[in-house]
Amino acid sequence: MLKKVVPSEAELERMEKEHGQWLEEYKKALKKMPERLNRFSTVSDLETRAIYTPLDIAGKDFFEDIGSPGCYPFTRGVQSTMYRARLWTMRMFAGLGTAEDTNKRFHYLINHGETGLSTAFDFPTLMGYDTDSPLARGECGKCGVAIDTIDDIQRLFAGINLEDVTTSMTINPPASIIWAMYIANAENQGFSRKRLGGTIQNDCLKEFIAQKTLMLPPEPSLRLVTDTVEFGTREVPRWNTISISGYHIREAGATAVQELAFTIYDGITYVEEGIKRGLSVDEFAGRLSFFWNSHIDFFEEIAKMRASRRLWARIMKERFGAKDPRSMLMRFHTQTAGCSLTAQEPYNNVIRTTTEALAAVLGGTQSLHTNSLDEVYMIPSEEAVLIALRTQQILADEIGVTHVIDPLAGSYFVEALTDKMEEEANAYIRKLDDLGGMVAAIERDFPQMEIADAAFHFQQQIESGEKTIIGVNKYLSERPELEFVLKIDDEIERMQVERTNRFKESRDKDRFRKAMDELRRRCEGPPCWDNNVMPALVEAVRAGATEQECCGLYREAFGVYTDPGTF
Amino acid sequence: MGKDRKLRILVAKPGLDGHDRGARVIARAFRDSGFEVIYTGCHQTPEQIVNTAIQEDVDLIGLSILSGAHTYSFPRIMELLKESNAEDIRVIGGGIFPLEDIPKLKGIGIREIFEPGAKLKDITDWVEQNISPRKAVAFEGK
Amino acid sequence: MDIVEQIVSGNVRATARLLRDIDDEIPSARAILKELYPHTGKAYVIGFTGSPGVGKSTLVDQLATRFRKEDLTVGILAVDPTSPFTGGAILGDRIRMQRHFLDPGVFIRSLATRGHFGGLTKSTNDMVNVLDAMGKDVILVETVGVGQDEVEIANSAHTTVLVTIPGMGDEIQAIKAGIMEIGNIFVVNKADREGSRKTIRELRNLIELGAKRRNGDDWEPPIVETEAVKSRGMEDLHEAIRNHRSFLLSTHTEKWREVLEKRARIQLMEALREEAFRTILARMEKDGNSFDLMVDQIVEKQSDPYTLVQEIIAKEMG
Hints:
The complex is a heterotrimer. By secondary structure, chain B is α/β, with parallel strands linked by helices. Chain B is 38% helix and 17% strand. Chain B contains five helices and five strands; from the N terminus they run E-H-E-H-E-H-E-H-E-H. In chain B, strand 3, helix 3 and strand 4 (90-95) form a beta-alpha-beta unit. The longest helix of chain B is centred in the middle third of the chain and has 14 residues, at 70-83. Chain C has two domains: 38-251, P-loop containing nucleotide triphosphate hydrolases (Rossmann fold, 3-Layer(aba) Sandwich), CATH 3.40.50.300; 270-317, no CATH class. Chain C has a seven-stranded parallel sheet with strand order 4-2-5-1-6-7-8, with helices on both faces. The longest helix of chain C is centred in the C-terminal third of the chain and has 34 residues, at 253-286. Strand 2 of chain B pairs parallel with strand 3 (89-91) of chain C, so a sheet runs across the interface.
């Protein structure tokens, strides 16, 4: 049986002949009617041919490169059962206005079948500022929920069983602080930190590369990330302490290969930092998770996700000598591509999102957010969110794609594209090694420039019509009025400031001061368990420290980073 | 002398949103049209933007914003330009805006709003047609 | 108030506008420069040069903070390259100076090279004079930092700081190749990096080699280690600059005179070149002697540039 996957020389010869004959026919036919495009390529501008044959995967070894689901190198999936036993977690990214507004949205989603929570914070929270900061003017609750204190966190998760549901929190430079608030609040509510499950994004490297939620320079940022990894390993064993994210890298304009390579290299860097801290790979690597963007090019995305599992497994085994198979698992969340949505004819976004979600499912994702059709304008309305959630449920329960594991394995094209993704990502990984690692590369603006070049190239392809976006550069359309529009009241800013001020006045001043002194002492000391910020943070936020107060201390201790912004 | 004055443009991102893909792409397009672009990166306050525009003596400020905080930052920038007697510095905006906000923004003096899907060429053409470098400082001599 | 009075009284808008006119080579700007000149001579000018990525902007930013602590006002000129293909430029040095955007005691201007080589722009010296007349106590000039021949700054600044980082082998080569002489102070930035000992050692050897050529009472360039992003080493750098300044001013007054002469010489030369060229061109135009016509003659091999220049000089200046 397996001989068919690895053809014999005689068979190869016959295939080549056959392929040559077909090519003749094809060229002949094109004389009558030429190809529609000058060049066929993926959205990342990877050229694709008319057909793929066994020749494209000749030399591949089924056991080494493809294998079975749940088995090394995990090309076909991280579990042996995949969606036949348990579907992916339907985790809709949500956050708007005040903690109460978002809590209401959480309950709405759970009531409609969502199976995991995902929190979007507003920009001041993401950047480490309280609502009353002058830099936060006009931003409160606009792009997510405004969180200043543990009090806000308590309201955010009111009525939710935190031992039952897993919570993802998209927060980066202040991740340690928000996580400390989550843990302290959960314990205040009677839950055990040992049983809490969820994810903090906490991926500082991709902030320098792409998303630019910047606070501290790279080295202290890595130190804080490693503090959370160490604390999680010892104290919160079910928590994923980093969600190593390609999503934002892709949204900034990267190609699929760049997303794959830079993200995996970020992962390599976090593993190296953990080892430097004195942890063994198998102690913590199993809690690292990943986050991919599912863009509009269907097969490219599936190939990227399949390649990502194989790449990571090989790196963990070969580069880091991991022994535990759990350390080699590339478990990932996926979000459909925000940047593929259009403001023109927004209902078409449902079709885009559906296609991208289908690619994520066929790529074997562990959890999924589907964008709402109005997300190109604003935080989604309840009506639009429901369509997006229902999209996942239809894919899961109606169309049958969940019945067979990795159904595209063995497709000449998908396997060849998976190989190509791995190969090109490896070339970037070698380049980053040569540059002296990711931090050195970031300081030289290498990944930033690669992405900026790709983004500019794509924009030029759109303008020249080489790539098509319906409603934007083909079948042009005006932006319509939407029937449902979510508005965030500017008034909540004032209310939130008042609330935080009252909270600060009511706290025990001595306990607060003592906690902050301990946090400062740990920040200033050399990185090690005795100076790990997490235990001190849990006490500080319980004693009433606001997010900005903790970040202020970080800024003083570690310095402030601004984007080099070169072109 | 026979040389043409160069157009100077400030590309700025007000507010805390760090999504600079659009700002970076348009900065390149402006450079490629022969303009001098001052790029200040993300996370700028209205005060910082206006001070920069004045010190750099730009003809135009291009604001890029995706967060919805334009309801605060755009009017504030216009107000500060007025207070600084710098209303001759013109302002355009790019990004995502609720439809009903667009006439309001034009009402406070924002010259043009470019929405998602706008072509780079449309933007650079608009600038070439509508914005010219200011006149030299008058000086009688002694 | 006319523009001269406005600038001398520190008006930011007026200053910014004049700088633009100078950059655009507007003739009336030269008349204003003439009026401003009596108000110059008070500022201390510090130049920063070194390859891209060594952290010049961050150092300038940190040093500005340090000078502000002494209540000194600061002018900053930061040069970035103009694209040779489109004539446009993206000027991004300000990004690392954001904390000063709201400080009325700091004036920052980004400049594009506009085809000029040597690390500065054609008009940098004139702009330094404007910031000086405007009342800035210290003027920090950051060169473009793309080439290895950025020696112009040495003729513009009182103190020239040469910045490098560990692990840049090429940098040391460039220093050997000639820009060594222009550095009054050497900064090894990012000094926490691997290889920093080696870089410092190599620099020290070079300085000692140079010392053999210098007189005994010459300034010996110090090497300052900094980590600009963490504000480390800034006191040392500040002190090194102050030491160099007092070396010039009090210990060796003839050195101060040398610096003043050097700066005057380059400014006179630039002004002469500019004015002579402009005058000749204006006369040619008046006489109906077209520049373009001469270009045609050269292309068609009817004449050559050397003969034509001789003819122009004889005719217009004779």
